[in-house]
Amino acid sequence: MLKVRGLVPIIRSMKSSKMNNEKSPEADAERQRPARNNSGRASAWILLLAGALATLAGTFAIDQLYDGVDRRNQAQLHVARIEAHAEGQSIAGWQTIAEGRAGSEVTRAVEEDRREISGSVQALKRLRPGDDRVSRIETSLNEYAAAVDEELRLIEAGRMEAAESVSEERVDPGFEVLNELLDSMDARYEEAARRTELYAEAGIYSMAALLSLVVAALFLRHDRARREEREAVERSEERYEIAVQGANDGIWDWNLLTGETHFSPRWKAMIGFEQHEIEDRFEEWEERVHPEDRERMKAEIRKCMSGAADLCELEHRLRHRDGSYRWVLARGASVRDTEGRPYRMVGSLTDTTERTETEEKLEKAEKRYRSLVEQAPMVTFTYTREPDGGTHISYVSPQVEALLGYFSESFEDDPEFWMSLLHPEDRERVLAENDHTDATGETFEMEYRMVRSDGRVVWVREETVLIGGEEDGTTLWRASKWT
Questions:
Q1: In 3-state terms, what secondary structure has residue 472?
Q2: Which of 419, 451, 424, 412 is nearest to 435 (CA)?
Q3: Residue 387: exposed, middle, or buried by beta-carbon count in 10 A (0-12, 13-18, 19+)?
């Protein structure tokens, strides 16, 4: 779920209480002419009074509409705060799993997130009394907090596998459920704000038609649009800042018109510098990018600025103060003016060095393993068996082509393909022994016949052993076949 997500445009209260006290030209002309009859003059005053009353009624109605919008806006901001601080707890869990311990700093961050969440939930209850969605969100938050606590407890106890299992089975699903509830509530507020805007505009135009205040109404509408645009940017930035408070990320803000770039203290610390040691210029970043990554970085920026993508994301290497290179993940979004031209880019920077180096080590280890396996005079299969009986074959060594005349992909794409190659006279006993092995976890050892792609029958000896398992009941097996 860390997607950069902006708030819906916020409509601020627009009070329209000033009335036009000047008398209409038609009324002046009527008074200048001799009155033909008292009933005509009375009708003019009645119409004027009716227009004034309609204006007062419309002003009051619009005022009430925007008061309701203000309350929804406040509720919407609290929904955003809840989502951001809940995500902060999730990020804290990921960090503790990566570091292998739950430090006091993480604990304090989680406690601060929960205090903020509690305050926002209470504010929502006051703003939306009787709304059952708030109760569902509160229940989901409690379940999510309990899962995070369990995850941190297990990490502190050194039970990393159990903590990862809790993260996958309870924390991540709990956050997704909470996120869906918050998004649903946010969408309803957005739709309600949209309807209110339509109703209010209709009222303004009606009053303008009654009292010839079209110019004033258009001015107010234009002024409101400008405020909406400005505050939409402010709200979006505020939500983004809240979302990264619980993460160990750096923040950057690039003014495309002036070239001035703000780098947060954490951004500079990632590459070994103090706040005052890097100037507020984008070149400070660009000059430190690894030469092999610069063109990719420029291409990603062009794509984001052209509008081809709403968000840009690039993992690249950045030169540290000590001369080494750190792997970082940069995320950003462009901010555009009313004509769609980008004038700012803002985003975050995450240090991914440890993860990237771990992935590279795993990749090298896997290559060494495959090199050894593929030089052996046998065929090696690795596969997993799910609790529901499903099988997923993850690897088949290329020697299978020499043994049976089929490529590895034939077996990887269809886990039951090997069964179709069993000799009819051996099929029943092989499958029975296979089922017995799956049920007991005992080693499978047997000689039987298989039919090659060219129709020839070959005797094979197979040995399959259980090499691991997961808490959910999934088992990992390795099978070896040779003639």
A1: coil
A2: 419
A3: exposed
Structure tokens at 370: 């495959």
Please say whether the structural domain 250-357 has been given the CATH code 3.30.450.20.
yes
Tokens of 144: 């999510």
Q: Which helix (H) or strand (E) segment is 482 a member of?
A: strand 475-482
Q: pLDDT of 78-92, one tens digit each? A: 777 777 877 776 676
Q: Are 166 and 153 in contact (CB under 8 A)?
A: no
Q: pTM of the prediction? A: 0.36
Cα 324–346–228 angle (5° rounding)?
170
pLDDT confidence of residue 174: 75
Class of 376-482 per CATH?
A: alpha beta
Cα–Cα distance between 282 and 11 in angstroms, integer? Answer: 34
Higher pLDDT among residues 384 and 3, named by residue: 384
Same fold across 250-357 and 376-482: yes
Q: Return d(Cα 222, Cα 261) in angstroms, integer.
A: 31
DSSP annotation string for 262-275 = EE-HHHHHHTT--G
Phi, then psi, of 259 in degrees rounded to 5: 85, -10
Distances (CA, A) of 42 to 30, 56, 209, 397: 11, 21, 22, 101
Angle at 127 between CA 121 and CA 128, to 5 degrees: 85
CA–CA dist 327, 476 (Å, integer): 33
What are the residue boundaries of the structural domains of the chain, listed by start? 25-245, 250-357, 376-482
Q: Tokens 């769609």 sit at which residue?
A: 340
Residues 338-350 pLDDT 10s: 888 899 999 999 9
Residues 262-275: tens digit of each pLDDT: 999 999 999 999 98
